[in-house]
Amino acid sequence: MRSWRGLAGEGPWLKKAGGIADMMQSPEGSLHEGTKDRDMSHFIGETCIGTKDTACVEVCPVDCIHPTKDEPDFETEDQLYIDPDTCIDCGLCVDECPVKAIYPEEDLPEEWNKYIQINIDYYKNK
Ligand code: SF4
Predict the structure, then answer these.
(1) What is the Cα–Cα distance from 114 to 72, expressed in whole angstroms?
(2) pLDDT of amino acid 37
(3) What fold characterizes domain 38-124?
(4) Which of 7, 10, 64, 75 meets the CB 3.0–4.6 Å disulfide criterion with 83?
């Protein structure tokens, strides 16, 4: 399902954009209930391994899913990864994935928790 929380004014999309979520901060600096104190991201999990369908790459508006087919490590990497520093948490990639490998962090299957770090590490080592 597509996530439009950001457009509803309560998600991290606006927080990243310096929008309403920032204005929702209390005088003490803590965020309103329901918002998080850090940016959120989608992540790619286990079923991408051996699949590497790139439909998600095509729809991502901020080009934060790599490696792409024309990058040198596409053949050697087991899966695709989302850069959490760039992802705007829009959810457009979720329905494009034929093996349901992409989830917002809060909905990631528990047994896939390690994929959060795996996605992060790919970009850390770039
Ligand atoms: Fe790109 Fe949006 Fe998917 Fe993040 S949630 S990887 S920004 S398409």
Answers:
(1) 25
(2) 45
(3) Alpha-Beta Plaits (3.30.70)
(4) 64
